[in-house]
Amino acid sequence: MSETQYVKQVQQQADAYTRTIEALVCLDSVLRYDDDSQDYRAGSMSFQGRGMTASGQDVAPDLVVQFDSIGGIVSEMKITASSEEDFDSAQQQVRTYDDELVGWDTSGGAIDSYDLCLVVPYPHAGSAGEFFRRVEEESAYSHSFVLLSVARDDLHHSHLAFENRLGEFSDMLVRAKFESRQGIVTVPLEKIVGVIGGIKFYDAKPECVEYTMDVLWSQYFTGDLPSRQVPRRGKQVEQKHVQPSTTAEDLREPYALFAQGQVRQPEIPKTAWIKDALDTYVAIGHAELDDHDRDVYWVEYNPRAWSCNLAGFARQVYKESAKKRRTRYESLQDQQPRLIEDNP
Q1: S-S: 264 plus which of 51, 87, 101, 197, CB 3.0-4.6 Å?
Q2: pLDDT tens per residue, range 158-189
Q3: Which residues pair with 237 in a beta bridge?
Q4: Where are the domains positioned within the chain?
Q5: Residue 32, Cβ density class (10 Å: 0-12 exposed, 13-18 middle, ≥19 buried)
Q6: pLDDT in tens, 42-75
Q7: Computed from CA positions of residues 208, 214, 217, 219, in that sequence, does the dihedral angle turn out positive or negative?
Q8: What is residue 193's three-state secondary structure?
Q9: How far apart are CA 117 and CA 97, in angstroms?
Q10: What percent of the residues of the chain are helix, what percent strand, and what percent coil, each to the nearest 5?
Q11: pLDDT category, 331, cuts 50, 70, 90?
């Protein structure tokens, strides 16, 4: 893979991550927003990545919507699903929820009934519909199953459109919302941009470390962190004091999707994600570990550094990886004569 291809891959992975966050926020609005009252339905709630159990197995659905103590919807978001292999993986995951899920916000953790919902990208909705029709014919889900497609339209006013492709919701208000709009419910992004704009993480780890690096550089390191001045390249530079656990905790309130701090809610972002990003800063020369406390990183932060963004970090990571590959290759080449001598 060339450097250009790697940068493009990173950009696509980061875009898929942000589009998933966007779609989760909008789906929550589709399912819970009441057009008549112009507000979210009274008594309704939603959870992202909530820890639940089914047949003794731990599960964490992408979105759990609960209307009251008797009804809800469990959803999975597969924003990049495009093949039968992807659809099969999605249906297996959805099937794990097709049981008596425990972990709802009720006194006993159970609920009377709930639907299953899967969201796939619009360009592949036709083939997904065919696949899940076969699934329903061969081994139908015991709970009501709904397949939605999602598409973003930026032609006039940016919005996400959710189209009902298969099945129908049990909740009368949600079902009526789709029926009254010929099966397509749109969410204007301008109405929830304040929510989406501040959210950077959900319960899945970003596929590329450069995404987390970019968030830290553009959102977190700009803050008032402890720092020190050190001589570098003939001048004094500022290094910011960063600890993975503290950083993760600082990011949870403003940048994580939906409620934090509840017993069944995951801690997002995870400390390990932050540590991976900081270790990568070290690898490409933007940070160093403290001499005495190996849980402390000193990040050489410069807000004007033109290469410190998603694409720039991707290029630096690629170059560092290529350098390591060359070093390993040269090391093996140096060892070859000796290996021949040792094994006549």
Answers
A1: 51
A2: 899 999 999 999 999 999 999 999 999 999 98
A3: 230
A4: 18-196, 209-319
A5: buried
A6: 999 999 999 999 988 999 999 999 998 789 999 9
A7: negative
A8: helix
A9: 10
A10: 45, 25, 35
A11: low
66, 48 contact by CB (below 8 A): no
Across 167-295, the runs of DSSP E, i.e. the strands, are: 184-188, 227-232, 235-242, 287-289
CB 57 within 8 A of CB 95: no
- What's the CA gap between 256 and 122, in Å, rounded? 26
Tell me: pLDDT of 114 over 60: yes
Whole-angstrom Cα distance, residue 305 to residue 308? Answer: 6
CA–CA distance, 119 with 224 (Å, rounded to integer): 40
Report CA torsion sign: 144, 90, 52, 192. Answer: negative
Q: Which of 38-52, 122-136, 230-244, 292-306 has the highest mean pLDDT?
A: 122-136
d(CA 255, CA 218): 13
Q: Which residue has the tokens 């081994």?
A: 139
Go through the chain and tell me how many residues it has. Answer: 344
What is the layout of strands, in order, in the sheet containing 297-300?
A: 227-232, 235-242, 297-300, 287-289
What's the mean per-residue pLDDT of the chain? Answer: 90
Q: Which tokens go with 97?
A: 């929820």
Contact 76, 117 (CB under 8 A): yes
3-state secondary structure of 118: strand
Q: Return phi, psi of residue 20, to 5°.
A: -65, -45
DSSP 109: S
Q: Which residues pair with 118 in a beta bridge?
A: 76, 147
pTM over 0.85? The answer is: yes
Say whether the peptide bond before residue 269 is cis (omega within 30 degrees of 0). Answer: yes
